[in-house]
Design goal:
Layout: H1 2-23, H2 25-59, H3 62-71, H4 74-87, H5 92-104, H6 109-121, H7 127-133, H8 136-146, H9 148-161
Helix pairs in contact: 1-2, 2-7, 3-4, 4-6, 4-9, 6-9, 7-8
Length: 184
């Protein structure tokens, strides 16, 4: 968070300097007025968005999502995994350790891949923010257009890898699994 704030405020400072040289302090004040009007219009929607995100974080625990993922297989598992990925709260520092636990639970590779794509594409906790900052129509269109992507990827992974657990728990990053070597 601290690093991203530094980048944002650094960009802000550079932009204000550029605007000052292009049009002076009058244009800077005009830009600030536009920002305040935009902030005022979005404020109530943003507050509601943060409350919705907080409630999703409370309702959707790791345990509930784990139960969903272990209960289904095949196409049902793909759909549930994509939706569970989209509903899973938090950023990568929260869900990647959760995905790592798929290895211990011996969940198939296609469930892992579908979950990750569901989290990246759906991320329903982002929907209220998108609706409040961009527009509800554009947010809905984006979700409708991208809806089939995690499911298609899950079906491809199921087709290519089957129901096998393709994650070898003994391998470290960058190592190869010689037990299934097609090149020999």
């Amino acid at each position: 968070m601290k690093q991203s704030l530094i980048v944002i405020y650094g960009s802000l400072a550079i932009l204000i300097i550029i605007v000052y040289f292009v049009g002076g302090s009058a244009i800077i004040l005009e830009g600030l007025n536009i920002s305040i009007v935009t902030m005022y219009k979005s404020f109530l929607m943003l507050v509601a968005s943060f409350i919705i995100i907080g409630q999703l974080n409370v309702l959707l625990s790791k345990d509930a999502i784990e139960k969903w993922l272990q209960k289904f297989s095949g196409i049902k598992a793909i759909i549930v995994s994509a939706i569970a990925g989209g509903l899973f709260p938090g950023g990568p520092y929260i869900y990647y350790p959760f995905v790592l636990s798929f290895r211990e639970k011996k969940l198939p590779f296609y469930i892992l891949i579908t979950f990750i794509f569901g989290k990246q594409v759906y991320d329903l906790s982002r929907l209220p923010m998108e609706a409040s900052l961009v527009s509800p129509e554009i947010a809905l269109i984006r979700h409708l257009i991208t809806f089939p992507i995690p499911i298609i990827v899950g079906l491809l992974a199921l087709r290519l890898y089957g129901s096998t657990v393709s994650i070898n728990p003994t391998l470290k990053a960058g190592e190869n699994d010689d037990s299934d070597n097609y090149n020999s």
